[in-house]
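Tutorial handout. Part one gives the primary structure; part two gives the three-dimensional structure as tokens.
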Amino acid sequence: MTFNRNNPKNNYSSNKDEMGPKPYELIPFPNKPITPKSPPKQGHSQYLPNHLHGTLYLTLLARTSLHVSTGSVVMGSDIDEKPPLIKTMVRTPDNKLIIQGSSIKGCIRSIYEAITNSRLGVISKKYEQSYPEERLPKKNSQNQLCPASLVFGASGEGWGWQSLIDFQDAICEETKYTVGFIPNLWSAQPKKRKAYFNNGETAGRKFYYHMTREIDKGKRDGIPIQQIKQAYFKTQIQFHNLQPQELGTLLVILGQDSEYPLGLKLGGGKPIGMGTITIDITKANISQNLNDLRQRYSSYSTSSQTLTGDKLSNFIQENIKIARKNLIENTQLQAIYEILGYGKKEITRQPYELY
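Part two.
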């Protein structure tokens, strides 16, 4: 199987200098300074009063074809498939596909950074000089943490702050998958897109739109991948020592805000419509004070801490309300909703066929 990266029709229109409509948007940075904070003196060794601790139980639905790569290419015969070579996903011993917890965390952190007044967690060295100075990660002191770093962790020279949230792998409920054929996508072209920069500085954070469908180039022109669509995954998010506004912001990103319901984009093929998922929180085990924690470890019954139905919905909306008031940047939330809104917002964008 060969593929000519220099063929312009693989990524652009028939005119070599004409690029297709951009499948993404840049979310501008908040126009105000970041207020740095220090982590709690107790570190991670204690449960803090007036903080929230617990587990969220999630069901993820792949709305468009999903491929979260292992980074490996194997012979098709190794997984009983016809293509000679194929890009794989991680699987369980009983052949169920997995979305790695690290992939889920990275996706959620990027949105958390965008809708709070936070720094960037990861910077490409190639373009580091183009970012506003106040948005670069602080590596010299753990007393300079931004809202996202306090929740998701940060590190520097001789210090580190561990994440307050643990993302478990999401495991598919079924064993079937399909083989898709994606185009050979090119890297970002910031020199050809004026929208990447504002007065010489990077204009914001990049997010891809949801689309009505994904592109499949077929056996002749596409790259074979393991993928799955319209399938459910189960996972859990465990957290401790979160403030209500921090948990509320997480819940907004998980698509639970009735005013701004979001879907996420995960894995490969985002520019061609792949990777759209939606999330349902089925239940939550929550400890809201120290008495809840004492009960958890001194009693066999924890039913009073398990929230479902209306109790869960009320808890979610209460914390979202606190987050919207105290932590979330509403301008950035509205901008994210224009890109990642799902449910209330009709999806009409089509993928660019000439990739």
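Part three, for discussion. Residues 1-17 have pLDDT under 50 and may be disordered. Helices lie at 101-115, 147-152, 218-221, 244-253, 290-298, 309-326, 330-340.
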